[in-house]
Amino acid sequence: MVAGLRPLHRKVLRDLWHLRSQMAAVAVVMACGIAMFVTLRSMHGWLRGTQTQYYEAYRFADVFASARRAPASLARRIAALPGVGAVRTRVVMDVTLDLPGLDEPGTGRLVGIPEQRAPMLNDLYLRSGRWIQPGHEDEVLASEAFARANGLVPGDAIPAVLNGRWQRLRIVGIALSPEYIYEIRGLGDVFPDNRRFGVLWMGERALGAAFQMEGAFNDAALTLAPGATEADVIDGVDRLLAPYGGTGAYGRADQISDLFVSSEIEETEITSVLIPTIFLAVTAFLLNMVLARLVATQRDQIAILKAFGYGSPAIAVHYLQLALGPVVLGAGAGSGLGIWLAAALARVYARFYQFPVAEYTQDWRVVAQALLVAGGAALVGALGAVLRAVRLPPAEAMRPEAPASYRAGIVERLGFQRWVPAAERIILRNIERRPLRALLAAAGIALATAIVMTGWFMFDAIDVMKQIQFESVQRYDAMVVFDLPRSARAGWDLVHLDGVRRVEPFRVVPVRLRRGPLTKRTALLGLAPGSELQRLVDRDGAVRQVPPRGLLVSDVLASQLGAAVGDTVTVEVLEGKRPVRTVIVAAVSRDIIGSSATMSLEALHALLGEGGTLSGAYLALDQRKAPAVYRALKETPAVSGVVVREAVMRGFEDTIAESFWISISMMVVFACIIAAGIVYNGARVALSERGRELASLRVLGFFRGEVTRLLLGEQVLLTLGGLPGGFLLGYFLAWLVAYRFESDLFRIPLVIRQTTIVYSLAVVLGAALLSALAVRRRIHRLDLIAVLKTRE
Amino acid sequence: MDAPAVFEARGLSKVYRMGEVEVYALREVDLDLFAGEFVVLLGPSGSGKSTLLNILGGLDTPTAGTVRFLDHDLTVDDDRARTRFRREHVGFVFQFYNLIPSLTALENVALVTDIAERPMDPAEALGLVGLGERVHHFPAQLSGGEQQRVAIARAIAKQPDVLLCDEPTGALDYETGLIVLQALADVNRRLGTTVAVITHNASIAGMADRVIRMRSGRITEVERNAHRLAPTELTW
């Protein structure tokens, strides 16, 4: 009970109760902002912290390199390079797997590990089971995501083709590696398909023996010594590995798992600042609106308090306490919601990033920060009103506020008054009298519109990406990858498989593109002209032809090289005879997924100086016979892997789509709340300011509907006024998102569909309508008699 | 008086329930107002005169009794019908003018003529109250008396059957009050509008055809003036 409270405290409680629905609107918007803050900051901190910890604890390497076959003794020379810290060399081989319940062959990446567990670079976290034992050559550790996707547990065995021989690999443990937090094959793949691709760690002795790699390695990972320059080390490693078929060393920035994880973390960092800022700004604005009105209506009370000897600090504290109400409520509820959402989101992240510390623990510092930020926003919002209350001279405050002065507005200046009825002029003059507030209210609506629009845009973008990638670019049913470059005959063999409708061969080689000081390591794809199963398609859906001569590069790649059409780049092939050629950039494509360099198959063969070698082929299949084709491929030793389009598409949906979906849904819901909060509080304040005027109009014979229209008309105008700005801002935010997300992995197409505009419109107008209905009830309850007996 | 009754109130009672207590604002009041007459209702605060006027004007409903306006029973009307009644037949003038601050004098009048059936020109209505020169001023630019005359112009511009004025001079000084009363008398004389004025200022009674005195929710006395004084002849 309020007994025992000081009178001013009781006033705080009663005023809060009196303003409960407006305060609730403020609290809800604040809760959204704080929830976003807590969720996104916690997520960011957790991801960043987990990544750093994981990398440190499991000694994630800084530089990675592959070769065809290098002698073990080379490891010492690599370690002796200036700037190199620790080195781990190993054998890494992709092999065909026969996975339970899967017609098509799966791909296993066998990575050599010591039989006796010892600390090493890219160390493993053993989730369950045990380490392999010396002398048990068939024992492997399986990556967790792969094991989970295939329902594999320690004790299970998978048939695999090792160097042309079927062999059973027995899983004895489930492990995680910092190298494969995001577990994909590479080679142009962007989305994980844990069902068909997985890492298996095998004893280095057994692995070496199986592939005749005893005393040799084909993969190296190393750390940089303090103060070392990555580029220098990469150059050194490349020089050492070049004679042994080195495919070019690269740093973490090109390590696919780290690239993806780091860019995702960076993403959360940006949104964790941007989104809550918008919400807290709106909170401050709403709070200012409500409190300013309260101070205006309580002028006489403030005067009396001052006359009784309450000083400015007491008055200031009093009104600040009023601001504290919705803040405590909003920040409390928001923190709770944020903590819950963060934990839920952490479960999603933990599912597709393989972290050893999946256990999410709330960082309470984030919650403390959130509370501070909430308090700050409240202070900013309350400050104006509080200062006005403090500065009010008692004698003046005793008198009612002077009648508001108005002047002729835009309608008169433009000479339109004849067409605007007197009643509607009230709306225009009210807006013109408080242009700043009108502007802020319209800006709030614009923000809400923009947020909804950005959310829908991202839904659309994912949809368009999916459409372009899986309907226009990848039109094959399956992509076959050979274990090593094969002659054209291998392609012909595929044509003769029963159920294969079309075969389109391709050649792909690792290259380093160089233009001046800029270099980029990538895969160069040779595609037959007129390819139908794998095409080059721009973000806008336009299909490109492979140029007969020269190079076609993604715009991301072109900008990384600073190259434009007509420029020449140096192509250093990192395989075979390692030719170095100068090639002209014939075209720059604006493709959507991956970053690629493409040539015509013929031109690539010419560049390589080889005959018609192939790396694989794209297949169109007769769907009924697809299982048989897959089974046949599994039996073909030359086939090291099959990429199934359907599976890649599901991988896309499960990773990008799902993690986007959560944050986008959150944004859309919260944007609705912002819209509703702004319209509702705007209308409530307008009602409080103009209740007397509206009641007078009712007395003069205006119907309820007419009076409601007058009040809501202003809100409608402000809402409509905010919409165009909202669409512009939405477009800008969409552009920003598209621009920010631009990476080697994928680009977001800037497509704003008409439906996006319609949905944003519907959401904002719907929220506005609901608040309008809530206010309409109050207009209907206006006390007509009371207003006639009182001066304002 | 030969004129027909505009209002016929019979057995009007109004009870406000304030918590446990019932407060009688009106107790079984009978009253007729006749076409074209100027009536002053006199009484102290709480005598029930405002309640009576609000019920006649369709702003409030009685707890018991009936009110007929011409041949229409007001007591059975719902909110919408009462609004329509006010819109078509009643002009109100209040102590605190109740002008719309964001509209000029002319627009305040136009606000009503826009929705009336047979309005006069807003400028003409302002001319009638002597404000022909100040039509484009906003309320904040007008004195209290001028604001009240705008309110009168607004009330008469729709050519109502009856003009109900609740303490129209209550917030004004003597001279200004006289000007406002003169405007009301002019409207009554020139347009033949029935005028009912509530006041607790007994001096105003002199300008009425009839004076109705109230106390504690009852009519205590009805007095007919043999001779109506001009507002300028009133003193207080």
Describe this structure in words.
The complex is a heterodimer of chains A (792) and B (236). Chain A is of the alpha+beta class and 792 residues long. Chain A folds into four domains: 202 residues, no CATH class; 198 residues, no CATH class; 190 residues, no CATH class; 122 residues, no CATH class. In chain A, 53% of the residues lie in helices and 19% in strands. Chain A contains 22 helices and 22 strands. In chain A, the strands form four sheets. In chain A, strands 3-4-9-6-8-7 form a six-stranded mixed β-barrel. In chain A, α2 runs antiparallel to α10 and α13 crosses α20. By secondary structure, chain B is α/β, with parallel strands linked by helices. Chain B has one domain: Rossmann fold, CATH 3.40.50. Chain B is built from six helices and ten strands; from the N terminus they run βββαββαβαααβαβββ. A six-stranded mixed β-sheet of chain B has the order 6-7-8-3-9-10, with helices on both faces. A four-stranded antiparallel β-sheet of chain B has the order 2-1-4-5, covered by helices on one side. In chain B, a hairpin with a 2-residue loop joins β9 and β10. At the A-B interface, α13, α19 and α22 of A face α2 and α3 of B.
